[in-house]
Amino acid sequence: MSLFASVILIAWPAIVVGVFATCKPRRAILIAFVVGWLFLPHIFLKLPGLPDYGKLPATSLGTLLAVLIYDSGRLLSFRPRWPDACWIAWVLCPIASSLSNNLGLYDGLAESWAQFMSWGAPILLGRIYFGASDSLRELALSVVYGAMVYAPLALLETKIGPVLNLRLYGFQASSFMHAARYGGWRPQVFMQTGLALAVWMAAAAFIAFWFWRSGSRGRVFGLPMAVCAPTLMFMTFVCKSGSGLIVLLLGVVSYYSLKLLRTKLPMLLLLVTPALYIATRAAEVLPAETITTTVALVDADRAASLGQRLRQEELFGRHSMIRPLFGWGGWMRGWPRDEEGELIVKVIDGAWTIHISTKGVFGVTAFLATLAIGPWLLFSKVPLRQWMLEQNVAAVALATLVMLYGLDNLMNNMLQPIYELAIGGLISYALAWKPAPRGQRVVLPQVATPTPPHGEPVAV
């Protein structure tokens, strides 16, 4: 870890405050989160007596500080509604886990603070600033902007290897062993892994595709979506990741299922799949052999990697049932061990496996509810016939993105703060939705007075 990387990370909150001084809050938030996530070093600084300090805590802390300085009225006017109970429970559940394991209140508060920085703060900011049609459009396009900036850097790394992080910050974020793929290099740029980059590219590709095929307005660096979408689809293939390709494929299929079938069923299936998968795996109804054998028909190497993750699920799942409600807490107490006390596995990958081990069934339920509440509210409030209207395309595309994010995190554990901003925005958008009277134009979800500085609507 280089001194330069540490200095940049420590200085980032001050830089974010400076960005707020020159931009409207909504745009400043997008700049802070997109630029911070894509370009800050992926390191964690160990601070005595405090939670680890990384790029997402730095961004969340700087953004909240800037909002308090420049737009405190907006923040203080926020009032939680019943859907907020999902993510608030997710933020607070480490306290219950720590107390139930006699780890002390401080341990629980520290873990909850870290979870608030990673999840609660982005969702809260999404609730306050991204609850209207135009703001969700900006949010969706910010993903495409970030991917288009990353595209030439990713192409460069396919030739020279994933070394940009090493050359700028002086360290390698992940092993070169995972970068060699199919006779070449899998790019990583400044992400934590090449897999994270592939999923980001796939998300941007299918959002651009949705905008393009629906005829929705939007340009990125002056380029129409008819150019951005194929470019980012190509980049998803360049990233050489099965997860990225699956996210892209499901995003495109979701669009055509709405366009051609005119039914909510595929979306509802996507929404409940994570919960169904976890339930069937926990009950050992879905054998690992069935899954790996099916995948091996397409790619034997990926089947072997998947088999390791499925073994983790079984070992951690069985061990977590010793303390099922709130889990084992932190400090690797929930890791399965042999009779000599040695770790049976050295790595844990899937988010749900981590959460059921550390936070139990309560934590996993809160996690799934946090991911599902925004899309579910949107799909239940907005009539299907209006999903592809200009004012709703960004919201429906982001809801699909959040659901795919939840699906991807069954096997992986990758935070993406833009998606968490989207969760908050979708909740506010759906809560403010008012159906138009029959025969009249659609009423956009906007909130009336009081109007804060900058003329942006207040979230409800």
Automatic annotation (TrEMBL):
- Membrane-spanning ranges: 6-23, 28-44, 56-73, 189-212, 232-258, 360-379, 414-432
Write out the entry's keywords from A to Z: Membrane, Transmembrane, Transmembrane helix
Name of the protein described by the UniProt record: O-Antigen ligase
**Presence of keyword Nuclease:** no
